[in-house]
Amino acid sequence: MNRRTTLNSYRERIQRVVDYLWENPERECTAMELADIAHFSHWHFHRIYHELAGETVYQTVRRVRLHRAATRLLRTDDSMEQIAASAHYGSVEAFTRAFGVAYGVTPARFRAERRRASRPNQPLPQKKEYPMDYKVEVIDLPRLTLGTIAHQGDYNGIGQVFDKLFVVAQTHQLITPDTRAFGIFYDDPYTVEESNLRSEAGITVTEAQARDAGLTVREIGGGPHAVLTHVGSYAELDKPYQWLYGEWLPTSGHEAADSAPFEEYPNDPRETPASELITRVYLPLQG
Known about the structure:
Blueprint (H helix, E strand, L loop, with lengths): L2 H21 L7 H8 L6 H9 L3 H19 L4 H7 L5 H12 L3 H7 L22 E6 L2 E9 L5 H14 L9 E5 L12 E7 L2 H6 L3 E5 L2 E9 L6 H15 L9 E3 L13 E7 L3
Antiparallel strand pairs: 1-6, 2-4, 2-5, 3-4, 3-7, 6-8, 7-8
Helix pairs in contact: 1-2, 1-3, 1-10, 3-10, 4-5, 5-6
């Protein structure tokens, strides 16, 4: 399968989701349901959708519901309370604010002026252009056992969890020259509220070592993985993720496996300038 065919396949699958959202604006769909419609792993669906659709699923749903609300404003005599509720807003005030942002006028004024509620463009945007470019290597990664500590919140705050992890590791004499450090990231930061983002900081250990140290046992790897190497500040890691999901994956001929992406940190941020930090981003692939 060539790059163009693969990209078209990814776009068609995302388009299925967009069509479904337009046809079912009242439904509260789970990420799992939408991923199934597109035949993508739920671990990666939101990132792929964001890059190819140019907006998050939540933004598409909000746009579709506001369009339906605008149509009802023009075609029915339903009350503002009814229309706000049908658009899934808890109050007329919240609906009015959201409608004003999208349409530039209040719902009442929109209705009074009988503006035409033209349907926003449904087709996906043209292929996004990325100013950056990276090299990706597909490798067969052996299965690795980690001892981890969970983190919830801003992904940039996982450094504090790593500090805690290394104190535990040093106390239990788990650090060796072969120790590797990984971060596992379960949620798409464009879709999930920052306070609810889930991640884990981990190091390679045996299962027994992890349990003795009071760490969570987690396994990663085992099969083909795309590996992207980023050099620079951890704060800039959103760029390689955008490129990996929006440019490389849809044209690679590969499908993402049903497990979360993770990162490896070969050098020590306490001793390395931010511009020289190395991060390997691993994307699990179907075998």
